[in-house]
Design a protein that fits this description.
The protein is an alpha/beta fold. It has 59 helices and 19 strands.
């Protein structure tokens, strides 16, 4: 006999006694494939119909079938009532049941007696290949559990029937009821299922007849979790049982009734039957290698520990001998034996029907016939998992009455709950038996106690996916409450739905570069989209990106998000243009916003989860806000943010973020997580330890009181109990043991941070050092940095310690590239081990620098050191250079926040006399700092740094870039414009361009520039070679800025002078650079306001400039400004208005992407105004204006917002929907552009029938025509058109001053005739209409009608639907005047159709009323 000491000291001996355990339990690998099966319920119904006369049928002829029938009939011996198994079959036939043959095979389903099935199963699991045998045994174990579950369901059902005869059964009858020969199994044939172990599809009880159909399927969320029908809150495999009984049976729920002796006996007998299913006969048991005597260990008394209670001196009563006189198995045999007894009243010396095997010989040494040795070895000793052994043991013990152990089942219903768990979570309860390693001790993947929160999150996601409207939800709670795991539980469902889930977290240790977190999230999104999208889908995405941001800005996108390259076709090559100088944070937000508009849609909903927002910075939150608060319907994003509410105090940036979202109509939803409940804690501990929940209830109650249900703290507390041996794994018992009294008596902290700290304090020095090092880098550290540090003498054991100890101890996880703490609280505890944190960071950074580690990681560590460590100038200069180099990478990727952080540190470390001692280093650091500050929106900081550079710079060349940046900032802010103007003049004079302060004569300078252009052909101009001289390029740059500033602060004739000087310099020196197109188009815009001859020259010059612009990729930053000048002035004379709409939209997008918000706003205003001129559908136009109004609010473009509000009002008036009110703007909004309002008011007044108002505004316009704005060609021409048409109407109405109206009409006709000479597309229809009107009032009716028809056709050809309607309306008026009602009616119907297409409801109604009058 093996002693307890021997057991504890020789694990191999214990493993030898449980060799089958190694084959079955230790390496369970559950398949994740789902089952596919036939409808077995219908099949069984057909079998029932076929088998009603089963008694008269012949049995199968093959030997195995005959043997099966013989065994079946032999086992069906008469019971106490005289009924045989055949009589039971007859009764089943009467009640709608069926008799069971030895084999019944139909449509891939086989039905056979349970005894024969079990014998066949034993043969199937034998194989020469150990690995294959292990797989077969695993599958067999699942099948047997399923059969036991089915039998239990049948017994439950039988015992719960109203007036059930079972309640009156004798012990003998109950044994016959639970006999192995009273059941048959229905299975799917091998090979039908791709998933082995789930072939059992039904169990049939012969007497009284009933059957259960078992349908097992696997969900996508967890292939190893199960769910019984009508059981809420459980996901995974679904096991649905359907009971079939004779129609005369009545079911009654008896769960609430007191447990009967019959129920306990059924539980006991089912346990005996299960033991036989798993263990087989006595001979089969002995073949497994167990000795015939002393098969069980005998521990000493002081080693006996109850599983949910304190130690006790009570002797184990694990097996008994049967005493016929008392009728109970109540006499203990031996001490501490693990065998267990059979049923009360069972005499195996006389009957073998229960177990189905031969009489058991007596090994007790007692030859008396009244006692038979009925010891059955625990299943764990036969190699089965402890959970199965525990289940069977507690079921067999169920019928011991007063002698029943505490952990035995009180009823069959309770036992069925545990059996359900075996099927529900086989990976938990049928897994390896030895204690798990600490690295594996992380608890179940299941999320406990969060069903309501999961439902809320899922509903929000589904709402976003169905509506296409972005939403935000924030999850709050203390550290360890499960915020991250709650969101991660949704990822698989999101993927299945076709969406994309992206998660990132902010890190307290990486506060110097927080924008990297958000950019990394969008970069990962690009990778997921490219990975999971088809080639066709990727081409569609590429074409949309190309349309929305252009090829040049695609290059910028791939620079900030490298994975965006994977979204492009392989043949596409992108040249990175030099646009970094103008990129700022607003352009970054706009580019990401455009990307999300293309990628996300209801079928590709994006879930963006950013955790630990309490450490986020304002710029990161603003970038997120720009995406999720985009115009409704333009993207489809569910933003989920997690943060610790106890770390968000008053004034935190996160609170401002909430307010910003609310004002953007994205109301944030809050989801607060508290601790989980006691039952959930019990389930967590049950799954973690792999024991049934009922057995660990006492332990879980203690843990819950200590942890308040915090999930992470619960696991850590359990770890601490195991570390202190308060909960230990017994190899002998193959289960966990604990003493609740001892646990309760221990003084264990209720703070998880203290718990972890105490645990770390007892680690070795090398382990503590490794924890400290990793904690300095945040929640994770790259494997590359670990390797670099491991190459130093100071941290040589770092990588080995991480791999061999900390990962195994459960502090760290790792993948191929990263080591990370299992939880932020673990990192906090590790970081708390460091006493002098600043010194530690500094030393770590210096070591990493010496090892040649990552420059950004190195700078981050050193920068956390105290300034007192940098007293030496040489070391300070070294750190300055390090920070400057570290800033280059984020600056290149437009992570301006990180770049600013490094450059700010570099500037602070410069010596006081750095301008004298380290001039070049100081210049480049401060220049970079000014650029980063400007890009981050810190204008005052950038201005201060610029002024210092200008003041301390040695030469003009060193400060030119700074001058340019300073002027750009002043132009953008619209403040100090006069200072900006003088700065430009100063720099130009320093560069050799002598420009007087007061300009008197401009005509000669303009004439000189005109002559230079007239003397050059188009070919000469286009053949100009790029000038690489930096001085000339600088002059061109400052001329460009001078023109922009002078527009706001100088008279127009002064601006004309500067335009002429700029163009002359360009032609005189043949400077072809990125500023040349601007020089050409700017000069052409000035000329277009003069004579027709100048206008024609302007068209030529502007066209050459636009060609140059299209050829010069480096001019992308100048494109928005050039587009403004061209399409506002010259373009209206040369290109269709509809084309200008598209091009100005592109100019707007490029301006937003390059940070040129001012010119972007101008482009958008031109685009919207041209859309009104072009007759764009008013309803579409209204929606577009509202979209851009929201964008203007977001980017604080107040002047643009004022203009859009004005155009929105005009559009609503033209639509005529009085229910739709104007969208209110913010307070203190400036007035809209006066002249734009003037011309659009004329347009709307005319169409709405207010000819007098149009005539009045025309006279006002003429009195103020010296205004340069009113010389804008398109405005001047449209004013003339509306004025002339108004005069025609007033003349037709017979108003006074008819001759004045006729003269005004003639004047307008002359202007439109001239304009149509420039662009027939834009103006010929208008000219023809005015000509027809003029002929009409001259009573030249035939010619007038021809011109009206020509005007209608010209309007239609130019796609001006509103002007086509106007021409039809005026032509109808002419015909009515002549009495031709038929022609008038036809024209009015056509006009009504045109106005309907235009979207003007008010005009449609007006024309309809005229039609009614005629009819």
């Amino acid at each position: 006999m093996m002693t307890p000491d021997r057991i504890d000291n020789d694990n191999s001996a214990a493993r030898g006694q449980a060799h089958l355990l190694d084959d079955i339990s230790l390496s369970l690998s559950w398949s994740s494939k789902s089952s596919s099966h036939n409808d077995l319920n219908q099949l069984w119904d057909r079998n029932c119909e076929d088998d009603r006369s089963a008694a008269s049928r012949e049995v199968l002829d093959d030997p195995s079938s005959q043997r099966g029938k013989t065994e079946f009939e032999a086992a069906s011996s008469p019971d106490d009532s005289g009924n045989s198994a055949h009589e039971f079959n007859a009764e089943c036939d009467k009640g709608g049941g069926c008799s069971i043959k030895a084999h019944e095979e139909k449509e891939g389903v086989m039905v056979m007696p349970l005894r024969q099935w079990n014998e066949d199963e034993a043969r199937k699991t034998s194989h020469s290949d150990p690995r294959r045998q292990m797989e077969l045994q695993q599958a067999s174990m699942l099948r047997k559990i399923t059969i036991g579950f089915g039998i239990g369901k049948l017994l439950q059902h039988a015992s719960h029937q109203q007036d059930s005869p079972i309640s009156n059964y004798t012990s003998r009858q109950l044994q016959s009821l639970c006999s192995i020969d009273n059941f048959a199994v229905e299975c799917i044939n091998e090979g039908v299922l791709s998933e082995s172990g789930w072939e059992v599809r039904g169990v049939h009880m012969i007497s009284p007849f009933s059957s259960v159909q078992i349908d097992s399927s696997c969900s996508s969320s967890s292939c190893h979790s199960f769910q019984i029908e009508n059981e809420d809150g459980t996901t995974g495999r679904s096991v649905v049982s359907t009971i079939t009984i004779p129609s005369t049976a009545v079911f009654v729920n008896k769960v609430a009734q007191e447990t009967s002796d019959c129920d306990c006996m059924l539980c006991h007998l089912l346990g005996v039957l299960l033991h036989f299913l798993f263990a087989g006969s006595r001979k089969q048991i002995e073949r497994h290698g167990l000795p015939k005597d002393d098969r069980n260990y005998e521990p000493s008394d002081n080693q006996v520990v109850e599983i949910d209670g304190p130690k006790t001196k009570k002797k184990s009563q694990d097996f008994f001998r049967f005493d016929k006189q008392c009728g109970l198995y109540n006499e203990p045999v031996g001490t501490g034996n693990d065998s267990y007894p059979l049923a009360k009243g069972a005499d195996l010396s006389q009957d073998t029907s229960i177990m189905g095997h031969e009489k058991v010989p007596n090994h007790s040494g007692n030859s008396g016939g009244s006692q038979v040795d009925t010891r059955l070895p625990p299943l764990k000793e036969l190699g089965y998992p402890p959970s199965i052994s525990q289940l069977v043991t507690n079921m067999i013990d169920c019928n011991l009455g007063l002698f029943r152990p505490d952990d035995s089942y009180p009823s069959l219903d309770v036992a069925m709950n545990d059996m359900q768990l075996l099927l529900q979570e086989p990976h938990v309860f049928l897994a390896a038996s030895p204690p798990p390693t600490k690295s594996a001790f992380t608890g179940s993947e299941r999320l406990y106690g969060r069903s309501n929160e999961i439902a809320s999150l899922t509903n929000t996601y589904c709402r976003v996916a169905s509506s296409g409207m972005s939403e935000s939800i924030f999850i709050t709670g203390f550290s360890g409450c499960g915020k991250t795991r709650l969101v991660h539980s949704m990822i698989e469902s999101v993927n299945i739905s076709g969406g994309f889930a992206v998660t990132q977290k902010f890190d307290e240790m990486q506060s110097s570069s927080p924008l990297t977190v958000v950019l990394s999230a969008f970069n990962e999104l690009c990778r997921l989209v490219a990975q999971r999208s088809s080639a066709t889908c990727l081409i569609e995405i590429y074409e949309k990106l190309l349309c929305s941001i252009g090829k040049t800005n695609l290059a910028f996108l791939t620079r900030i998000l490298p994975n965006a390259v994977d979204l492009l076709p392989s043949h596409v090559t992108l040249a990175l243009s030099n646009i970094q100088a103008g990129i700022n944070f607003n352009s970054l937000c706009f580019t990401i916003q455009q990307l999300l508009r293309v990628i996300s849609c209801p079928s590709r909903t994006v879930l963006l989860f950013l955790d630990d927002l309490q450490w986020a910075d304002p710029m990161s939150l603003k970038l997120v806000q720009s995406v999720i608060s985009d115009v409704k319907g333009f993207n489809c994003v569910l933003f989920v943010g997690g943060f610790r509410e106890n770390e968000v105090e008053h004034g935190h940036v996160l609170l401002e973020f909430f307010d910003t979202l609310s004002s953007s109509e994205v109301i944030p939803s809050m989801l607060s997580l508290n601790g989980i409940g006691p039952d959930d804690v019990n389930s967590m501990i049950s799954d973690t330890l792999g024991i049934f929940p009922r057995l660990c209830k006492g332990l879980s109650d203690v843990v819950f009181r200590k942890t308040n249900g915090n999930p992470f703290f619960t696991l850590e507390f359990l770890r601490s109990l195991i570390d202190r041996d308060l909960v230990r794994y017994s190899l002998r018992a193959m289960s966990w043991k604990w003493d609740l009294n001892q646990i309760s008596a221990e003084n264990i902290t209720d703070n998880v941070l203290h718990l972890l700290t105490r645990k770390m304090n007892v680690l070795s020095e090398s382990n503590q050092t490794a924890l400290k090092v990793v904690s300095c880098f945040g929640s994770s550290i790259s494997a590359a940095i670990v390797r670099k540090l491991s190459s130093t003498s100071q941290y040589s054991s770092l990588q080995r310690t991480l791999d061999e100890t900390l990962v195994e101890e459960g502090f760290m996880d790792r993948d191929e590239t990263t080591y990370r703490f299992v939880h932020d609280t673990v990192r906090e505890a590790a970081y708390g081990l460091i006493v002098d944190k600043e010194q530690y960071h500094f030393d770590l950074g210096i070591a990493l620098q010496c090892a040649g580690g990552d420059i950004i990681a190195t700078a981050n560590q050193i920068n956390r050191g105290p300034p007192s460590l940098l007293q030496d100038d040489s070391r300070r200069i070294s750190i300055v250079n390090l920070n400057f180099e570290a800033s280059m990478q984020p600056m290149h990727c437009s992570d301006f926040t990180a770049a600013y952080s490094f450059l700010k540190t570099a500037a602070a470390l410069l010596p006081n006399d750095s301008w004298a001692t380290h001039y070049d280093l100081t210049l480049k650091c401060l220049s970079g700092l000014a650029r980063a500050a400007y890009s981050c929106g810190m204008a005052e900081r950038a201005k201060t740094v610029c002024e210092e550079i200008i003041d301390r710079g040695k030469c003009l060349e060193d400060t030119l870039e700074t001058y340019s940046l300073l002027v750009s900032m002043m132009c953008l802010a619209r403040n100090d414009l006069l200072v900006a103007f003088k700065t430009c003049l100063t720099v130009l004079n320093l560069l050799g361009e002598a420009i007087p302060d007061d300009v008197v004569d401009t005509s000669s300078t303009v004439a000189k520039a005109k002559m230079l252009f007239q003397n050059k052909s188009n070919e000469d101009l286009l053949a100009m070679i790029d000038d690489t001289t930096s001085r000339n390029t600088s002059i061109m740059e400052f001329y460009s800025q001078l023109i922009t500033v002078s527009f706001f602060v100088k008279p127009r004739h002064i601006c004309h002078y500067y335009n002429a000087r700029w163009a002359s310099f360009c032609l005189t020196h043949s400077v072809a650079c990125k500023y040349t197109p601007g020089a050409f188009v700017s000069f052409a815009s000035m000329l277009s306001q003069n004579s027709d001859e100048d206008a024609r020259l302007a068209c030529k010059i502007s066209k050459i400039g636009m060609i140059m612009l299209s050829r010069n990729n480096s001019a992308i930053q100048q494109l928005p400004g050039v587009y403004v000048l061209h399409y506002m002035m010259v373009g209206s004379l040369t290109e269709p208005i509809q084309s200008a709409v598209k091009m100005c939209q592109y100019g707007y997008e490029v301006g937003m992407q390059t940070g040129n918000l001012s010119h972007a706003a101008f482009n958008l205003a031109i685009m919207m105004a041209r859309s009104i001129y072009a007759g764009t559908n008013l309803l579409i136009l209204k929606n577009d204006i509202e979209v851009h109004m929201k964008s203007a609010k977001q980017y604080s473009q107040v002047q643009l917002l004022a203009n859009l509000l004005m155009m929105h009002e005009v559009t609503l008036r033209l639509i005529g929907d009085e229910e739709d009110h104007s969208v209110p703007g913010p307070d203190n909004i400036p007035p809209a552009d006066e002249d734009l309002r003037f011309i659009l008011d004329m347009l709307s007044s005319f169409y709405l029938g207010h000819a007098e108002r149009v005539h009045y505004k025309s006279k006002v316009w003429e009195r103020l025509e010296d205004s340069e704005q009113r010389k804008v060609p398109i405005r001047y021409i449209h004013k003339a058109f509306f004025s002339g048409i108004a005069s025609f109407r007033l003349y037709s109405y017979g108003r006074r001053d008819s001759q004045s109206h006729a003269k005004n009409l003639a004047k307008s006709l002359s202007i439109l005739e001239n304009a149509s000479g420039f662009s027939e597309w834009n103006y010929k229809n208008k000219y023809l209409l005015l000509k027809a009107a003029y002929l009409s009032i001259a009573n030249k009716n035939v010619n007038a009608e021809k011109e009206f028809d020509a005007a209608i056709l010209a309007s239609k050809a130019s796609k001006f639907v509103h002007e086509e309607g106007l021409a039809c309306e005026l032509a109808a008026t002419h015909h009515l005047k002549r009495g031709n009602n038929t022609a008038a009616l036809r024209l009015l119907c056509q006009a009504k159709s045109c106005y309907k297409t235009w979207g003007s409801h008010v005009k449609e109604v007006h024309i309809a009323s005229q039609i009614e009058l005629i009819q």
